[in-house]
Each structure stands twice: as structure tokens, then as C-alpha cells.
Amino acid sequence: MHLAYPAVLSALLFCTGLYGVLARRNAILVLMSVELMLNAVNLNLVAFDVWLSKTAEETLHSGQALTLFTIAIAAAEIGIGLAIVLAVHRNRGTADIDKLRDTAEGHEPDASDDEARTAEQAEESGRTGKAEATA
Fold it and tell me: What is the pTM of this model?
């Protein structure tokens, strides 16, 4: 098999993963796209290792060793990343990256947010007034 076939497949996988990282808003889909990019790199490493081992007399298989390290790093990345995304989703109720970015940067609240806060404060003061009246 020629080296061009796995190289082209790897390039297509990497471009698909890159598009997913840049275009998606859901954090889980971004993590899946990063995994796709890492798998494209793994395919490239193994393909070039096989190609070099056919041309060289020594067979070190360094591409396959690097692939094992990449798989280990990818497993750790997806485990930690998924745990972080699930914790953020539990706390904030969304995994949308744009909404999380807005809350992290501390943008000024909208007018609708101010109205909702004043309504909550009025309701809160009404509750405490009723509690004092019944006590």
C-alpha cells in the first residue's frame, strides 16, 4: 500500500476535527473533535513508521511507540475534560461554550437580568416580611 492513502485519510480526519473544534459550541463535541485530531496524528505516525521500517534496515518502530504515548495522553485528556465539562454542566446548567465564556469574562448584565434580580429581591423581601409578621 502506498503512503499516500493513509496520509490523505489522516489529513481528512485532521481537517474534520479542526472544523469541529472551530465551529462547535458544545464542549463535549469539541472534546470529540480533539480526539479525532489525535487519531489522525496516530494514523500518520503508524503509517510513516511502517513506511520507514520498509526502507531502513533497522526496525525501531518509534512511530508506534509515539502512538502509544499519544493514546495515553488522549485518554487522560478525555477523562479530565469530560469530568470538567460534567461539573460545569451541573453547576451552570449548560455546556455551551459561548455562554460559559460570557460568565467567565464578567460581562455587564443585560437589562432583563437587572429586572429579574429586582423581582427576585422584591419577592425575597416579601417572604421575610411575612415571616416576621407570623413570628
Answer: 0.66
